[in-house]
Amino acid sequence: MKRAKINVSKILAEINRRHVIQTFIPYLGFVWLLLQIVSVVAPMLHWHPLVSTFFAVVLFAGIPVMLYLSWYFDFTLQGLVPIADKESGETRAFGLVRWTVLILISLGSGSFGYQYFHEVKVELAKTQDGLKQNIKANSIAVLPFKDNSPDQDQGFLAQGLAEEITSLLGRIDGLKVSASSSTSILSEKGLDAVTIARRLAVQTILTGSVRKTGDQLKVIVELINAEDGAVLWTESFARKFEDIFSVETEIARSTVNLLQDTYIESGTLTNPAASKSVDAYVLYLKGREQYRQQTTESMKQARKLFEQALGLDPEYAQAYVALADTIVLLAEGPERFGVLKVDIAATLAKQHLDKAIVRQPELPMAFALYGYIPFMLNNPAESLTFFDKAITLNPNLAIARVWKSLALKDLQRHDESLQELKLAFQIDPLSLAIIHNLGFKYSERRNFTKANQFFEKLVQEYPESPLGYVGLADVAYSKGDYVSSLKYWRLSAEMSPENEVFKEKVLACLLALKMPEQFKRFMTDATYKTTLLLLEQKYQKLFDEMHFQMSAAPDDPWLKFEAAIYYMQTGNSNQAIELLIQADHLIPESDKFDMPYCSPAIEIAWAYKKKNLIPQANKLIDECDLKFQQSVQSAIKQSEINYLGARIYALKSNVPESLQQFSIAIEHGWRDWWTEKDPLLSTIADSPEFQKQVAIINSDLTSQRKKALTLFNLNSE
């Protein structure tokens, strides 16, 4: 305690000897005097209001620097005079260490000063703009604007205006902006702004109205606090229609300045939707209106409207992007409209995107489409760089995250794929496609409770869509609950009678339950003739039919593979072996390892092993084993993966590991009725453990058949 007191005394004495206080007090007096002079002179000379603040910040930021220098120097009229060391009486040079400390103090003081000056500058700019920041928020949703035009014929303009403002806000770093699709869905349900905000988990809502009369435009906007419904800001814009782009930009700019600490100056926020021709913009908005309907006919009409917009303004970058987007969705393939060949659509879309990027180099949707094109052409690895660029430009572009998720899934990067989809869901929580895909991802991971939550949400939010029931059906099938799966697939098929996939799934459930009579009742396509013959155990007719088909198409390897599977299921191993080896020479290498079954490679490996062609067998087995190990780590499609593991280890004669994988597969819902006849499991077929697991399959399937028959009887009454 005494030592501390002595040390303090010494420090105070040294401060006094070095005249630190004597230097500090005059400096404060100088600062006060200079600020008084500035406060008087500034109004007289009409200086900018920030001039006084600038002087004050610079002078006060200089205090730490002055105090540091006063420790080593006396401030005199002749300049800085070094202070001698107390012990030696000599002065020391202002060396490297002292200079380093001085620089660090100057940088730190200057940094704090700059930050304070910037905050004052932002607040002053907001005050001059008439923007009073009552809330700091990092999330917002823009509701579709109301059409208050006399003829109520500007709905496309009202919706388009909200969509473009959403896009502008989405590019602001640190601001979460809900997708237009989700806000539109909730708005159509007639919910109030606060309820919508809570459903979308945002802090603020921007809403408004549009009135167009001739060439005059009036837009009224309100920014609402989601917590209490209070109006934070309201503004009315009465302009000529040709000024609509500046109105969109001004609304977005003002909104950001109200909610964020940063300040966007007037003229610094660019509007990619801007066109030299307002007529072209009208056609563009009408095209967007058709695009949102997501039908084949509406997409064709959207394409025409975007082309017409470009006819009026060939420099319209946003219209090129919209046209490319429409063409991509008109291509053949799942989740698309199947009008154009994929390669033709890809070529046309890229041509339009190239034109857009030349005119505006940083269009987020353009880069998202650049990424989707190689994904569409089965080259997902090439897509990721473009998707990342799109997300960097607009972190709130949900579709870019959805497409990136699909590409990552194709690359077997399942955890990253799920994460991207979660982020897309935060932006667009009512997107049918996102909810559907999230449910399937959780189903793949056997998180069936979470998966069903998403699918039940689909049933609730989209009662006219079959996709909720499709998801519930898939979950039930993955659990080995074929009866529930059958029920949901039938509901899906009833809601969408034209969908052949749903009919196929109904038949797949009946096949899994081994119910030939019901299978026959629902079979409307001769394609399933051979499957029915298998169920009815009419094996001679089955193989006569297969030989006829193979004779008609001798170079079709998949017919040979199908026939081989039938021979395997009926215990005719020799015929199956010959057909599998023939198929191996015809099937491309890239098509042999389809997961999660690693088929047909694993069946072909069995055939080679039975023929004692061990090198050929081991090559295929090792490749399947590698894919199996990768899939086990990702925990995707676990029952199928574990069954594959049982087959691989059985072929390797590793009985304990094969039985373990087989047991896990049964636990996870594997219920295939022909499992006990699977020749690939012959190594473990005589094991009591294997017989015990087969008994579980047979008992469960018998019970499920009874339930299914009851279900059919009830439906026929």
Task: Give an account of the 3D structure.
The chain is of the alpha/beta class. β7 (216-225) and β8 form a beta hairpin. The chain is globular and about 115 Å long. Residues 1-5 have low confidence and may be disordered.
List strands and helices in order, with pairings.
Elements: H1 2-17, H2 20-44, H3 50-72, E1 73-76, E2 79-82, H4 96-128, E3 139-142, E4 146-147, H5 155-170, E5 176-177, H6 180-188, H7 193-200, E6 204-213, E7 216-225, E8 231-240, H8 244-259, H9 278-293, H10 296-312, H11 317-329, H12 342-359, H13 364-376, H14 380-393, H15 398-410, H16 414-427, H17 432-444, H18 448-461, H19 467-478, H20 482-495, H21 500-512, H22 516-522, H23 529-535, H24 539-552, H25 557-569, H26 573-584, E9 593-594, E10 599-600, H27 601-610, H28 614-634, H29 638-651, H30 655-667, H31 688-716
Parallel strand pairs: 3-5, 3-6, 4-6
Antiparallel strand pairs: 1-2, 6-7, 7-8, 9-10
Helix pairs in contact: 2-3, 3-4, 5-8, 5-9, 6-7, 9-10, 10-11, 11-12, 11-13, 12-13, 13-14, 13-15, 14-15, 15-16, 16-17, 17-18, 17-19, 18-19, 19-20, 20-21, 20-31, 21-22, 23-24, 24-25, 25-26, 26-27, 27-28, 28-29, 29-30, 30-31
In the CATH hierarchy, what is the architecture of the largest domain at level 2? Answer: Alpha Horseshoe
| Largest beta-sheet details | 6 strands, mixed
Strand fraction: 5-15%
Give the uncertain stretches in residue-range form.
Answer: 1-5
The CATH superfamily of the largest domain bears the name Tetratricopeptide repeat domain
- Total helices: the number is 31
Distance between the termini: 97 Å
Please compute the radius of gyration using only Cα atoms: 36 Å
- CATH class of the largest domain reads Mainly Alpha
Structural class: alpha/beta
**Domain module tally:** 4
The geometry reads as globular
Overall residue-averaged pLDDT value: 87
| CATH-defined fold name of the largest domain | Serine Threonine Protein Phosphatase 5, Tetratricopeptide repeat
| Topology, number of strands | 10
